[in-house]
């Protein structure tokens, strides 16, 4: 899969007061790949996501998505351009039914404006039917169709994660950004979700970037890995290369001192 | 939420017809005092349901309704007053306004539109604020509009206000705009557009990452609420035949907010029910207050009820739900048919 770059991040930096959360990070995501962004806690993975999707504005550096500069764009603009994301700490519309959560994601491309809505024009009714149909389709893809009318806050944790997936897919993205989808899951659920991600990537052919903690899962499903540590790029390459890279091992496991004492 | 979506129109039509029959009955049989009380109930319904768009659907805590009512009230009043009376009442009125003599409906809509325009202009800076800050800013708007009304003497006659307005509002007008308000807000809530509003209320960041234009939706809800409040203001002043800068104060804002909070943030049915119950209760308690010399007792009771509801049901009586009242009322008839 040596496709062209869909997302190019170069020299991306973000400072929060005196803290350098991200410091000159550069990488590329290629069309169609399933890539992983990994690194120890606090290494700047989620910050990178927030900069790419427009939740934060970068302090320096550029982000190019499908040929256009998108750094500094608001999130809704990037969503319109084809980015979609999930959140590390689930951010669903808790009081709404499962299907309504997904339907919100479809409004951008299939919804109508104020007057057709209020005047109940045929175009509004058609759009509503279309939105419902497509939302159900997304739910079926994730095996959630039976739960469509349940209030999303009442679903088990694993299913809530899947609703976030369905909702992210509802915007019909060309780049899917998944922020620690297995956070808070047991090994069984993690493996299950890993398979789901792989299957969706294969079936829908959406370029996917995954931020992940669980090394086993990432190594298992990703085609290419990008490693960051303490806000800087550490390495990038195929999982096998990354596993053998001494700098990565050092970042994760610590360094052995000359005199033989293990350091944290 | 899905059930009333498909059955709304027939139910709304039934309810509207039954309501119209009741209005005709009331109009023919009740004395003017009782009729005016019913009209105030209707106005409260318009106000509570329209405030629910901002405070309930999209989760903006606005107290600005009285400001928009003042704007709508003045605009409608000035447009409706006949030129010869304007010459006596407002000798300094700019010529293009002095010559106007509009009929009631266009004047009401003009009042609503100017209120909506004010909301649009004010909305850009003010809607950046959240929660308590927004509440304080919209409270400030009430005082700003009041001081404009006091100081623009040439147009508003200052603190004296405009009195002796024609008594144009009747139960039919109020009823018509109740229906319009409920219809528009219901359609909005149960549409894709309304769903994005609820989504913003539930999680703004997630909504914007899904491509929802949060700022634009905020402005839309604020402007829609202001338009309906402006119309209610126009109706109100032509019911009491008077408007002054202090006609619509922050106390009224409090009363409308209470209706929304009690009924449920986002529930149209809840807002309507509580608007009716609270208005009736206040009227019933008035003679009691006078007899026992306990003025303000009803406000204390209302405040107490608000506390109890907020502690036991923080999302109000119905939350965002719309209990199927028409179906519930029709149930006995259905059963007898089956039997």
Automatic annotation (TrEMBL), chain A:
Gene3D superfamilies reported in the protein's UniProt record: P-loop containing nucleotide triphosphate hydrolases
Single GO molecular function: ATP binding
Record-linked SUPFAM superfamilies: P-loop containing nucleoside triphosphate hydrolases
Keywords: ATP-binding, Nucleotide-binding, Transport
Domain of life: Bacteria
UniProt-recorded name of the protein: ABC transporter ATP-binding protein
Keyword ATP-binding: yes
One Pfam entry name: ABC_tran
InterPro entries: AAA+_ATPase, ABC_AA/LPS_Transport, ABC_transporter-like_ATP-bd, BCA_ABC_TP_C, P-loop_NTPase
Domain spans labelled ABC transporter: 7-255
Organism: Dongia sedimenti
UniProtKB/TrEMBL annotation, chain B:
Protein name from the UniProt record: Branched-chain amino acid ABC transporter permease
Entries under PANTHER family matching the protein: HIGH-AFFINITY BRANCHED-CHAIN AMINO ACID TRANSPORT PROTEIN BRAE, HIGH-AFFINITY BRANCHED-CHAIN AMINO ACID TRANSPORT SYSTEM PERMEASE
Keywords on record: Cell membrane, Membrane, Transmembrane, Transmembrane helix
Localization (cell): Cell membrane
Membrane topology term: Multi-pass membrane protein
Transmembrane segments: 36-53, 60-82, 102-126, 133-152, 172-188, 219-239, 251-281, 293-312
Chief localisation class: membrane
